C-alpha cells in the first residue's frame, strides 16, 4: 500500500489533518472557517452552477439514446437486488444526516425567514422548499453522475475504478493526463477521508444526545462523545473483515428499514392529514422550483441572507461534492448490470422522493407541534443535535422511537465508514473491486483518527466548515469527469451504431 507514492502522500495529508485537529483543534477550525468564507464569496456562483450542470446533464443522459447503454456486458444481471441496491446507496449517501436534520433544518430555515418579516404560513412553505432543495435532486445528481462515470469506464471500458481512470482512458496514457489524474486521485482520497470523518462526528453527537434524551441525564461534555466514538470504532471495524454483500448490505437494509418504520409511525400517530397535505404541497412546490432555484445566488440580498445562503445552500453543495468521490465509486461498485437510464432514474428519484416524505413528516411534525406550543422551535438555534429527540419525546411510545433512532443513527454511521474505507482500499489497490481486509482495516483506523479530530471540535458548525474545506477542488474534478463521459459515449455508441 505505502509503496505507492499517491497513497503515501494521501495518507500523510489525512494523518496530518488528524494530528492538527487533535492537538490544535481551535487552529484547524479557525483555518477552515477563514478558507471557506473566502472560497464561498469568490466561487459561490461556480459551485451552484456546477451542481445545476450535473443535474441537467443527468436528466439529459437518461432521456437520450445513451440511456439504453448497459453498465456491463449485454444481458448481465445486477449483482444486488433493487431493494439492497437502493438501501446501500441511500445509507452510504445520506444516512445519519436525515436523522440529524429531519426536524431541525426546516425549523432553522423557518426562523431565518420569519426574521425577515415573512408571514408564518409562507415562511413554513419556503422552509420546506429550501430543505428539499438541499437534500434532493442536486445532491443525488452530484453523486449519481460521479458514479455513472466510474461505472461506465469500469464496466464498459475495463478501466480501474479510480477517479483518474476516465481521464487517462479518454485522453490517452500520456504524461499530462497521468499527472492530472494523479492529482485528481489524491484530492479525491483527501475529500473522502475528511468528508466521512465529519459525518462520523455528527453521528456521534446525534447518538450522544439520543442516549441523554432516553435516560433523561446530562451527557454534555467530550468524555461521553469519546466513549460513544470508541464503541463505534470497534463496531465498524468488524464489517470491514467481511464480504461487501454480507456486511454492508445487511447493515444498510436494517438501518433503512428502521428509518422507514420510524417515518411511517410518525405519520400514523401524528396529524396524518396535516402531514400528507404538507407533503403533497412540498412535492408540487419542489418539482416546480428545483431547476430555477439551482441558479439562485442571492446577489442582491442583504448580508444576513447571503450569510444564510453560505451556511446552508453552498455548504450543502460542497458537502455532497466532498462525499462524491467515495459515494460515487461505491455506487458504481454496486451498480453493474443496470442501464444508464435505470441507473439515473433510480439514483435521482428514489432518494429524492424518500427525502421529501422524510422532511415532510419530521418537519411537518415540528411545525405542528410548534403551533400547538408543545415544542419551542427556538431550541433549534442552540441545541440542533437534540431537536429530533425533543420532537419524539412529545409523542406516544417515545422511549421506543428514541431507541430506534439511536440504533438507526449508529448503523448509518457504521455503513458510511465501511463504504468509505472500502472505496479508499480500492484506490490503494489500483481500483480492485475486492481489496484486502488488511488494507480496509488500515483505512478504518485512519478514518477513526480523523473522526476523533472532528469530535474534539465539539461543534457542528466547525465540522461542516472542515468538510467544505476538503471539497473545494472537486468542484472542478466533477466537470472533467462529465466531459470524459460524454466524449466516451459519443465514441463508443457511435462505433456500435455503425
Explained architecture:
The protein is an all-alpha fold and 498 residues long. It has one domain (5-100, 108-257, 292-349, 410-497). The chain is built from 20 helices and no strands. Helix 8 (165-171) packs antiparallel against helix 9. The longest helix is centred in the middle third of the chain and has 41 residues, at 175-215. The N and C termini lie far apart (43 Å).
From the spread of the alpha carbons, the general shape counts as globular
User: What summary fits the major beta sheet?
Assistant: none
Element string (H = helix, E = strand)? HHHHHHHHHHHHHHHHHHHH
Give the rounded overall mean pLDDT. Answer: 84
Number of strands: 0
Question: Whole-number radius of gyration?
Answer: 22 Å
Q: Which percent range fits the helix content?
A: over 70%
Number of domains: 1
Q: Work out the oligomeric state of the chains in this entry.
A: single chain
Strand content: under 5%
Q: Which residues sit in consecutive blocks of at least 5 with pLDDT less than 50?
A: none
**Terminal-residue CA separation:** 43 Å
Number of helices: 20
Which structural category do the helix and sheet elements fall into? mainly alpha
Looking at this protein, list some descriptive labels.
single chain, 498 residues, mainly alpha, 20 helices, 79% helix
Secondary structure layout plus pairing:
Layout: H1 5-23, H2 25-62, H3 82-93, H4 96-101, H5 104-114, H6 120-135, H7 137-156, H8 165-171, H9 175-215, H10 222-237, H11 244-269, H12 272-293, H13 303-333, H14 340-371, H15 379-382, H16 387-392, H17 398-428, H18 437-457, H19 460-471, H20 474-497
Helix pairs in contact: 1-2, 1-9, 1-18, 2-7, 2-13, 2-14, 2-19, 2-20, 3-11, 3-13, 3-17, 5-6, 5-14, 6-12, 6-13, 6-14, 7-13, 7-14, 7-20, 8-9, 8-20, 9-10, 9-13, 9-17, 9-18, 9-19, 10-17, 10-18, 11-17, 12-14, 13-17, 13-19, 17-18
